[in-house]
Design a protein that fits this description.
With 163 residues, the chain is α+β, with helices and mostly antiparallel strands. Among the domains are: 1-46, no CATH class; 56-117, DNA Binding (I), subunit A (Orthogonal Bundle). 17% of the residues lie in helices and 13% in strands. The protein is built from five helices and six strands, in the order H-E-E-H-E-E-H-H-H-E-E. It has helices spanning 11-15, 56-62, 103-109, 114-117, 147-150, and strands at residues 25-28, 31-34, 79-83, 98-102, 154-155, 158-159. A two-stranded antiparallel sheet has the order 1-2. A two-stranded antiparallel ribbon has the order 3-4. Strands 5-6 form a two-stranded antiparallel ribbon. The relative contact order is 0.15.
C-alpha cells in the first residue's frame, strides 16, 4: 500500500496503522484497517488485452452521449446508433462506421450517407484505445491520492485508461 506521503507498507505494517478516516475503513477479525487508495503491484501474471468491446453503451460513451450530426444531448432513451455508410450500401457494423445519433437526425438521414442527407459528421468515428465507460466515472469517485499516478491519462474531466 502507498500512503499520501508516498511511503510504502506491506500488509502487516498497514494493518497496525491507525484508521485516519472513519468512513474509509474495512472491518477484519483483528479490527478495522484503513482502505488503501493506492497499492503497488509487485508482480503480474500477464498484460491485459487492449481490446475494447464493441457495444451500444461504449459507442454512446465514446461519443459522449451526443448526436454526432447535430450535437444534441437528448436522454439516453432517445439516442440511436447510426451506420455512417448504411448497411444497404455495404456499410459494416464497426467502430469506424457507427455513431451515436438522435432520433430526429436518424430519421432525417434515413438510408443515405451523411453527404447525401446534408448532415456532416461532427467527428470521424474511430476505435477507442481506452474503455469508453471509464470516461463516465464521476469526479467524486476519483481520489486525490491517484493523481500523481495518472500522469497523462487524465485529460480535463475525463479519466482515460488504456485497456
Amino acid at each position: 500500500m502507498v500512503n499520501g506521503d508516498y511511503e510504502t507498507f506491506d500488509f502487516d505494517s498497514w494493518r497496525i496503522k491507525p484508521v485516519e478516516v472513519e468512513a474509509d475503513r474495512v472491518g477484519t477479525v483483528d479490527g478495522a484497517i484503513q482502505v488503501p487508495r493506492v497499492i503497488v503491484l509487485l508482480s503480474f501474471d500477464r498484460m491485459p488485452k487492449r481490446h475494447v468491446r464493441f457495444s451500444r453503451i461504449n459507442i454512446f460513451a465514446r461519443d459522449h452521449f451526443m448526436c454526432q450530426y447535430c450535437s444534441a444531448r437528448p436522454p439516453r432513451s432517445e439516442l440511436n446508433l447510426d451506420h455512417v455508410v448504411p448497411r444497404a450500401h455495404g456499410g459494416r457494423t464497426t467502430w469506424e462506421n457507427v455513431v451515436c445519433c438522435c432520433i430526429p437526425c436518424n430519421r432525417r438521414k434515413g438510408g443515405r450517407t451523411p453527404e447525401q442527407a446534408g448532415l456532416p459528421l461532427l467527428r470521424r468515428p474511430m476505435r477507442p484505445r481506452w474503455t469508453p465507460l471509464m470516461s463516465l466515472a464521476p469526479a467524486s469517485a476519483r481520489h486525490q491520492e491517484w493523481r500523481p499516478f495518472l500522469g497523462g491519462a487524465e485529460k480535463g474531466s475525463r479519466l482515460e485508461v488504456a485497456v
